[in-house]
Amino acid sequence: MEDLHQHRKSYEKAELTEDQIRDNPIEQFRDWYLDAEENPLVVEANAMAISTVEADGCPRTRMVLLKAYNENGFIFYTNYGSRKGQAIEATHKACLHFFWPSLERQIIIKANLEKIAPNLSDGYFHSRPRGSQIGALVSPQSQEIPNREYLENKLHNLEKELDGKEIPRPENWGGYLAKPYEIEFWQGRPNRLHDRIIYNLENELDWNIKRLAP
């Protein structure tokens, strides 16, 4: 057994106090996201973990990319028939998680999910690189396949078939809007006395703000 008990660090880069936070968590998210995007040590500021609960009751987590956000919530794209897509359709809920170690910050977002309008999915799909568009047609995401060659052969055949043609967006591929009802901002602090500020949505309009013990 490898002993990891001594693997630790002291978090001392920033603080999150009540006089610093925004009244609206989306504005607070924007402030922190821009900090992450401008930090040269953050490779992909929009990388986020998304957790869903599957039929056996166990959460499943994977990394996706945030593609847009506004006052309504957070948008990402996926295959609707994938394991995450099936879990979302069953519960219409997910937890999003951003972790930026170089800033000693994380954000946890609990949200209700709904599909975005097809024309919005169309617009984003056709803005993607052509290879990514064809890849969405090639991959039966989360389904068992015989080998890597299966994908490579399917890719080769579709590239020939669609050469010079517009690539249609698959009906089972598109965006989700994650509408938050709880957002927690975590800032690392010395002695493990971290700052945790949580926003809870009340009456679908107002955000209640509380501090949690670390």
Could you walk me through the main structural features you see in this protein, from its secondary elements to its overall organization?
This protein is α+β, with helices and mostly antiparallel strands. The chain contains 5 helices and 9 strands, in the order αββββαββαααβββ. A hairpin with a 2-residue loop joins strand 3 and strand 4. Helix 4 packs across helix 5.
Strand content: 25-35%
Terminal Cα span: 29 Å
Dominant shape:
globular
| Multimerization state | single chain
Helix/strand-derived class?
alpha+beta
- What's the number of extended β-strand segments? 9
Largest sheet: 9 strands, antiparallel
Overall residue-averaged pLDDT value:
96
Q: Low-confidence runs (pLDDT<50, min 5 residues)?
A: none
- Write the element-wise H/E pattern from the N-terminal end onward: HEEEEHEEHHHEEE
* Number of separate helices: 5
Radius of gyration: 20 Å
* Amount of helix: 25-40%
In short:
By secondary structure, the chain is α+β, with helices and mostly antiparallel strands. Helix content is 26%, strand content 34%.
List strands and helices in order, with pairings.
Elements lengths: L24 H14 L8 E7 L5 E7 L2 E3 L2 E7 L3 H9 L1 E8 L4 E11 L2 H10 L2 H9 L9 H14 L11 E15 L7 E8 L3 E7 L2
Antiparallel strand pairs: 1-2, 1-5, 3-4, 4-7, 5-6, 6-7, 7-8, 8-9
Helix pairs in contact: 4-5
List keywords for this structure.
alpha+beta; 9 strands; single chain; 214 residues; globular
